[in-house]
Inverse folding.
């Protein structure tokens, strides 16, 4: 649900349903996703097959959504940053850092007590998770302070943390992979709740809370105002600096959660590779979802669809057995096509050609 | 200079239609432009002037109609296209790159080259020469932003001239110039006219129209109302044709009611007082008193410290010495939020950059300040927002398709009304209006000023800043004249008239 959907609740004129659908912001991202899914349906046998095994839902679709969870979280945070005309390229580094903090604190050992395995954490799991999210939050404060306080350009400001965050994580782990031996922690990234992957619930809650916040407070309005015209927004009495700090903290916290999901899923923290290039995928997801990098109007739901497009694409490429060395090229071609399909200028060119 | 019948128009536009979603911007619009004339295009906001110019310069493609330039039918597809043909435009808002040097701005995209490299020396020399022709003497290597708006405007004109254009279009070039600068511009235009250039001039200022024009085309409701020889058309007749109804009178005299109100305002409680408020290099210590229900006019030339004063009173810029008291208590106004919290509202002179949030709707723009004051968490319910927007749209006569229309699609006058409403919604006790009527048409101007004076009668205090002296003289209870960044005189209503005020402003002693 996008913020700017609010006016659409009461359309000015009763336009035909079809044209209203075509004009909707989400139409193009959803159409792109649908085309991808159609290709999968035609080329990959049993793609839409879902079955319940051991009370868990299995299938390609579940797999895609589950694997897209960290990216969706990062994209939700990135959406708000981009809406303020900013950008956060430290997302991957924050993912690595939060995963590292959680994994190191939990550590964990399994001991046999009376023939029953019992898992012991070095630090209580909730404390470790809180510490990881706290570290992410501090990262966000740092970014926000540089952008809003010192007036650095967002890409430069977050570039610092992009390097420093991963560096710090590597320092903490001596460059080694930290393995976790504590069963309950794995539930985050690979557990199931009501038959569905738990990660989905995390995404749903974050998305839901964000959407509620945008709808029931003036947050969405203020973010758009700051993104479109920061000078006018300040003169209208909006606390622009506080708002900008908030979006960077929010984005970093989302990245922190993504880091927890990823490290829990692989039962370890890899400071070198965890979340590598995730920021770029997140920016791509936001763009695919129809939010302009120029800031202003944004669509939270669009970014989720964008994340799903990226993950579906990855899944498709692997399933079709595209050789790994061709993988990146194929992905970039598809992304190029999706972006082109969303360009108004390209459409006009196309229409003029045909006319 | 008047075109004779033997002459052929260099540019002839006929039967132009242009439709936007929900609005017919132009229907059967036309224009004839002869070489060696200054032709003024007049009309109210929304009459279609800007759209017609955008059609001429290739920004919009017309749905129907023909453009004949130097005997050939043309259909410019972009401003570049139009420029290459010989139609140059200087837009209302200076459309250059502030961070580039003056010379670069003049030659951007057409840098003189030497052996494939940019010939910086030749570029500087040519730029200097062009500006000298316009009687502007500045260092062309400095970034454009380091010069006042008036100079930037001249640079834009120099750029247009450097393209050896045959038609020069000036879209409200004078709206940000002071009197001396306007005269400079006009003498330049006259020189260009002598050289056979066809100049299309768009303005809202009647005086300037009569000072410079040979002929006038009046537009109304997207159509050409008529084409007139300037000397044959009286001012009253012109206004009449623009509005399409007989105006009561061109100037409303100060009514007895207003005079009485001025007297009562003098006794009213003090809403805002400054004691030596100053900012180094920007404003000399200033003592100002504004009473309840009073309309205080700030007169002075561009750069005299009017806007700087407004920004300080609103907390947009901090004072570094002195004090500002609001309702008897000293207040540190560190940010606009502080000023808003104490009941001050501020309409900036720069509507596009400091006022309107173009992509947001009329409703969102209108409630923004009120929402900001209430805070982020206490969202104004949508229903209440709509009610507020509907109320002010009706009250101020804002012409918009709906309250959900992006404000950027409204005409300048209507945008200004929305911004006025943004502050009225916060029910301020002091409203600072910096050039609220700049670049908007006669009728909207009148409507806004009438509304503003009615607010005064209801007890709101207003600080009114305008370059249009007759307007300041007409509405103000009291006038503070500023010169060279300090207040240099204070006058009650009636103590100044059109001629004496000029003396005071110019510092020649009244």
């Amino acid at each position: 649900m996008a913020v700017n959907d609010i006016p659409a609740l009461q359309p000015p004129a009763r336009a035909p349903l079809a044209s209203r659908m075509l004009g909707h912001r989400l139409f193009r991202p959803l159409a792109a996703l649908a085309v991808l899914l159609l290709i999968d349906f035609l080329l990959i046998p049993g793609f839409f097959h879902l079955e319940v095994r051991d009370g868990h839902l299995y299938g390609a679709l579940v797999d895609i959504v589950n694997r897209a969870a960290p990216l969706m979280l990062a994209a939700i945070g990135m959406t708000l940053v981009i809406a303020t005309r900013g950008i956060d390229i430290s997302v991957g580094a924050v993912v690595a850092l939060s995963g590292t903090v959680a994994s190191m604190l939990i550590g964990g050992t399994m001991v046999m007590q009376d023939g029953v395995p019992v898992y012991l954490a070095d630090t209580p799991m909730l404390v470790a998770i809180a510490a990881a999210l706290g570290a992410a939050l501090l990262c966000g404060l740092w970014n926000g302070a540089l952008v809003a306080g010192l007036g650095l350009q967002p890409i430069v400001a977050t570039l610092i943390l992009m390097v420093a965050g991963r560096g710090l994580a590597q320092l903490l782990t001596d460059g080694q992979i930290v393995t976790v031996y504590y069963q309950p922690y794995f539930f985050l990234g690979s557990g199931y709740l009501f038959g569905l992957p738990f990660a989905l619930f995390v995404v749903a809650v974050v998305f839901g809370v964000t959407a509620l916040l945008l709808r029931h407070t003036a947050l969405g309005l203020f973010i758009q105002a700051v993104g479109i015209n920061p000078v006018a927004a300040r003169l209208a009495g909006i606390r622009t600096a506080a708002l900008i700090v908030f979006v960077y903290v929010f984005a970093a916290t989302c990245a922190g959660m993504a880091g927890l999901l990823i490290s829990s899923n692989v039962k370890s923290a890899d400071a070198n590779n965890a979340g590598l290039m995730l920021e770029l995928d997140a920016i791509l997801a936001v763009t695919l979802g129809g939010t302009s990098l120029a800031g202003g109007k944004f669509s939270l739901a669009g970014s989720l669809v964008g994340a799903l497009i990226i993950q579906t694409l990855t899944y498709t490429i692997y399933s079709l057995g595209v050789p790994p060395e061709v993988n990146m090229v194929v992905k970039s071609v598809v992304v190029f096509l999706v972006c082109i399909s969303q360009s108004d200028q390209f459409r006009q060119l196309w229409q003029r050609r045909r006319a | 200079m008047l075109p004779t019948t033997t002459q052929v128009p260099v540019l002839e536009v006929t039967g132009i239609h242009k439709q936007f979603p929900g609005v017919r911007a132009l229907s059967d619009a036309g224009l004839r432009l002869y070489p060696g004339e200054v032709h003024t295009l007049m009309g109210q906001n929304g009459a279609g002037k800007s759209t017609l110019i955008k059609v001429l310069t290739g920004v919009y493609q017309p749905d129907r109609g023909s453009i004949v330039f130097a005997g050939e039918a043309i259909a410019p597809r972009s401003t570049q296209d139009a420029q290459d043909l010989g139609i140059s435009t200087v837009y209302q808002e200076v459309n250059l790159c502030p961070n580039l040097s003056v010379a670069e701005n003049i030659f951007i995209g057409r840098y003189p080259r030497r052996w494939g490299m940019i010939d910086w020396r030749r570029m500087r020399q040519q730029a200097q020469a062009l500006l000298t022709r316009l009687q502007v003497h500045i260092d062309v290597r400095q970034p454009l932003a380091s010069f006042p708006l008036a100079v930037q405007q001249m640079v834009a004109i120099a750029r247009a001239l450097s393209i050896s254009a045959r038609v020069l279009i000036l879209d409200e070039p004078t709206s940000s110039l002071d009197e001396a600068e306007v005269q400079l511009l006009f003498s330049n235009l006259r020189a260009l006219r002598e050289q056979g250039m066809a100049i299309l001039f768009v303005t809202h200022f009647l005086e300037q129209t009569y000072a410079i024009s040979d002929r006038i085309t009046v537009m109304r409701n997207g159509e050409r109302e008529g084409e007139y020889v300037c000397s044959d058309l009286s001012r009253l007749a012109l206004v009449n044709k623009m509005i399409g109804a007989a105006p009561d009178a061109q100037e409303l005299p100060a009514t007895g009611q207003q005079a009485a109100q001025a007297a009562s305002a003098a006794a009213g409680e003090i809403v805002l007082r400054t004691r030596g408020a100053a900012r180094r290099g920007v404003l000399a210590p200033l003592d100002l008193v504004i009473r309840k229900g009073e309309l205080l006019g700030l007169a002075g030339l561009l750069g005299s410290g009017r806007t700087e004063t407004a920004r300080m009173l609103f907390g947009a810029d901090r004072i570094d010495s002195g004090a500002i008291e609001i309702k008897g208590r000293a207040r540190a106004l560190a940010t606009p939020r502080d000023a808003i919290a104490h009941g001050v509202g501020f309409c900036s002179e720069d509507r596009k950059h400091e006022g309107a949030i173009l992509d947001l709707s009329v409703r969102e723009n209108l409630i923004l300040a009120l929402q900001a004051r209430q805070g982020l968490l206490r969202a104004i319910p949508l229903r209440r927002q709509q009610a507020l927007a509907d109320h002010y749209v009706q009250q101020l006569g804002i012409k918009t398709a709906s309250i959900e229309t992006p404000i950027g699609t409204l005409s300048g006058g209507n945008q200004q009304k929305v911004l006025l409403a943004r502050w009225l919604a916060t029910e301020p006790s002091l409203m600072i209006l910096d050039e609220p009527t700049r670049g908007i048409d006669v009728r909207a101007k009148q409507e806004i000023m009438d509304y503003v004076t009615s607010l005064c009668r209801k007890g709101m205090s207003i600080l009114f800043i305008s370059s249009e002296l007759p307007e300041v003289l007409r509405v103000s209870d009291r006038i503070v004249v500023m010169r060279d960044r300090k207040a240099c005189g204070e006058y009650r209503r009636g103590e100044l008239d059109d001629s004496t005020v000029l003396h005071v402003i110019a510092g020649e002693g009244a």
Remarks:
- Residues 24-321 of chain A form a domain with the ABC transporter involved in vitamin B12 uptake, BtuC fold (CATH 1.10.3470).
- Chain A has one domain: 24-321.
- The two ends of chain A are 36 Å apart (CA to CA).
- Chain A is about 65% helix and 5% strand.
